[in-house]
Amino acid sequence: MTEFVQQIFNGLSLGSIYALIALGYTMIYGILRFINFAHGDVFMIGAFSGYYLGILFSFSSGSITATLPLAILIMIGAMAVCGLLGFTIEKLAYKPLRKSPKLTILITAIGVSLFLEYTGQLVFGADPKSFPSLLENKPVVNLAGAVIGSNPLVVLITAGILMYVLRLVVMKTKIGTAMRAVSFNPTAASLMGININSVISFTFIIGSSLAGAAGILYGLNYPSIDPLMGILPGLKAFVAAVLGGIGNIPGAAIGGMIIGLLETFVTGYISPTYRDAIAFGILILILLFKPTGLLGKKEIEKV
Amino acid sequence: MKKLFFGFTAIFAALVLLFSSCNKGGSDKILIGEYGSLTGTEATFGISSTNGLKLAVEEINKTGGLLNKQIELITYDDQGKPSEAGTVVEKLINKDRVVAVIGEVASSRSKAGAPKCQLYKIPMISPASTNPEVTLIGDYIFRVCFIDPFQATVLSKFALNTLKVKRVAILKDIKNAYSTGLSDFFEKEFKATGGEIIEVQSYSNGDKDFKAQLTAIRSKNPEAVFIPGYYTDVGLIAIQAREIGITQPLFGGDGWESEKLTEGKAKDALEGCYFSTHVSTENPDPGIQNFIKKYKEKFNMMPDAMSFLSYDAGMILFDAIKRAGSTEAQKIRDELAKTKDFAGVTGKITINDQRNAIKPAVILEIKGGQFKYKETVAP
Q1: CATH number of B10-146+285-360
Q2: Nearest-CB residue to A272 (from B213, B235, B236)
Q3: A147 contacts B243? CB cut-off 8 A
Q4: Domains, chain A
Q5: Which CATH architecture does the domain made up of B148-277 adopt?
Q6: Chain B within 8 Å of A10 (Cβ-Cβ)?
Q7: Could you tell me the sign of the dihedral formed by the alpha carbons of B204, B208, B212, B213, in that order?
Q8: For residue range B144-193, what is the model confidence (pLDDT) as tens digits?
Q9: A28 and A36 in contact (C-beta within 8 Å)?
Q10: Of A35, A216, A225, B215, which one is least surrounded by beta carbons within 10 A?
């Protein structure tokens, strides 16, 4: 029982990071109908921004633990860096190709991804860096013998808050309404006077800054970061977005949690060798029976 | 037409470059090749070993070199990837035409490089690959360290007699020859001498989340956890083990040896943990202390076991070349095989008929982020 509770918690805290990354995938897909494969690397840049901001605030890895306000400041800083990066990537790499075939822009995204990874290796160095301990990790909850650290709890809560804020933005604000309109029908939206370019930029900024936040949370939980760290979480978050129904925001959050839990349970109870195989196998099964993903709506092609 | 002309000129220029680079070195130098993980997750292995080797080359060149020639070292980075290791060894042999190859620290990468050396009959000395299969690849493959069955015996004895634990769980790296080998030998030895292995879990090098495996281990309530992995993973594992409430000591093999092991939060997580390795920098032996002094002066950092071993690997190779009186691969190999009681910095080195070195091991304890000498176990 203890083990089970602990595993659920492990899975949720891993899943909430996948969920944050998946949100970016799904939002950009919702607006532009394309998969931004560079998204996982934006997540990596987020972690490195946190690393360098941490050094800037002069507590080297491990020596002094930052206070909560400083940790929040660093997270906001990393989100700003990533938001700016997302904005730039869209303007430089994707916007000129908006009228091109979907395949062109997809391959460009892979190019941007590789560019970020290997520029990262050049600039940051290829060896893993120890992420600064932004918050002290104290065992807080002792639920049925399971020890739950404060950091995984912080990860869960922060991810929850960010997702809630995102929901408010998308559902209650003017720009959110515009985003939904563009997602629904870009041509009609532009005819109604919505500035498509600014909506797209806004989406990239929001999606990328969420990835930046995920990078910080990841570093907090797994304090070893390297320039290629974004590849696998990026891929898994993409799968999570598809699982939840790509283009659907709550779907991405749920998909992320499911992937995190599945991975943890397969690793803990079956074998880590089969972790990805079983997790992805279940994904294939779900998609076989529900091709649009768990919360995805069927799109009717108008002819 | 103009384009075509430029194209041909470019190809011609490239060919000239290619051929001219093949001839470099000439006859006034002896070229020694080295491959190591200068970058990647085990970057300190490569950096420490190449520094140790540089020191050896510098020393031999100061005393006039070998056979009246200076030694030149060519080092390639394999980025910690076995596939890359094979490629760079091929390059060392066929493009640079080195007379011998030194490398790698990690067994998986040595196993990728060694078949190339064996194929082209170029002697290779691994400084620190402890997996027994490495030297079984062929008669041109040597090593200057002990092998894992011995290391496993040392660790098993240590766990039973010094730590006084009987119920041990194992967390091994399933993709790594060193880790799975050491884990298997340990399991066999530990069970045979009265211990009990209550849980075996695994991970893949580069994983960041180990909580699922650690939770499973914790539920079995072991007295100690054996982690035969490399330092990058071990640091993260230790942090997460403490996070989910595993308070028992962790211990492992020489893959832990790196000053980066105790970086950041891992420093507290690994307090009171142990690992076996080749040499202790606390050893008062003048040879060792002298080496540390020279190393610190040149590189401005502390040497670790990999530095000592690759220095010895270099020195044994130079000794063999000197005795052979030639840079012919076959002769170097024959002399390497005859190495007996060579006074290396890590102790007296004798190469046995399986081309392994017979040497004692030391156990170090981690205290305040420092590696403190605990005990020596002779073969």
Answers
A1: 3.40.50.2300
A2: B213
A3: yes
A4: 2-289 (1.10.3470)
A5: 3-Layer(aba) Sandwich (3.40)
A6: yes
A7: positive
A8: 999 999 999 999 999 999 999 999 999 999 988 899 999 999 999 999 99
A9: yes
A10: A35
